[in-house]
Amino acid sequence: MDLTVSFSLTSSAIVAAFPLDSLFSTQGIMIMLLAAYAVAMWMFLTSAPKVYTIMVSDLEIARQFYEGMLELPAADVPLHYYYNYEQTLGGAGIDPLYLSSASLGAPTTQGLGGSDGLWYTLKKNTQLHIISGASLGHKNRQRHVGFDRDGLEAILLRVQALGVKYKIRREKPLNFLVKDIEGRTIEMAEVSS
Fold first, then answer.
1. Strand pairing partners for 189?
2. How far apart are CA 130 and CA 184, in angstroms?
3. Among candidates 127, 6, 118, 147, which has minimal Cα distance to 58?
């Protein structure tokens, strides 16, 4: 009997603290909708894959390298990229040395057969997005510029695991050379911040 009285008092206290008439008022419904929206956005953003972007000087050569040599499987464009997320990156923090003069005024995601570049699965819940816009490097080397050190390190690990010939030129910022199937030298460079 003591438990029943205790439960009645507890439920009475909850009803007193959150009266049903205010819970189902316009303001109460709006608060519940905002809370549901916040939970849905949190679930969406935590399940979205991590995306590393690499800017390259030639998308076709990049496709041959990432699909052929590194054997990366093609990936679907993540849902959060359908809303022009990448265009919010802007070009203000990018060293002009890495950009070709023609790409400065053009959207960075134009490329091979579409407007969204190349997409690959790098590892579980991690994708690699390849876009055009980098200039050729020294001695007309293909240049692949990374904006995130972790992304370049993941590519380097893949290169090492597959036994692809490479040479690390500098640790900070990370810069290494790789030979592709055609014998071309590809320079992988981290944009230092």
1. 145, 175
2. 18
3. 118
Count of beta carbons in the 10 Å neighbourhood of residue 175: 18
Could you count the other beta carbons within 10 Å of the beta carbon of residue 102?
10
Query: How far is Cα 44 from Cα 64, in angstroms, rounded to an integer?
Result: 33
CB 144 within 8 A of CB 187: yes
How many domains are there within the chain?
2
pLDDT digits (tens, 9 = 90+) for 70-86: 999 988 877 655 555 44
In 3D, which of 170, 164, 169 has the Cα closest to residue 184? 164
* DSSP three-state, residue 24: coil
For residue 72, the domain's CATH number is 3.10.180
Residues 65, 86 within the same domain: yes
CA–CA separation, 144 and 21 (whole Å): 61
At 156 the pLDDT is 93
Give which of 71, 70, 51, 184 is closest to 130, Cα–Cα. 51
116 contacts 109 by C-beta, under 8 angstroms: yes
Tokens 């022009």 map to which residue? 84
- What is the pTM assigned to this prediction? 0.61
Mean pLDDT calculated for residue range 46-62: 86
Please state the length of the chain.
Answer: 193
Query: Can you give the residue range of the structural domain that contains 27?
Result: 2-46
In whole angstroms, what separates CA 103 from the centre of its chain? Answer: 21
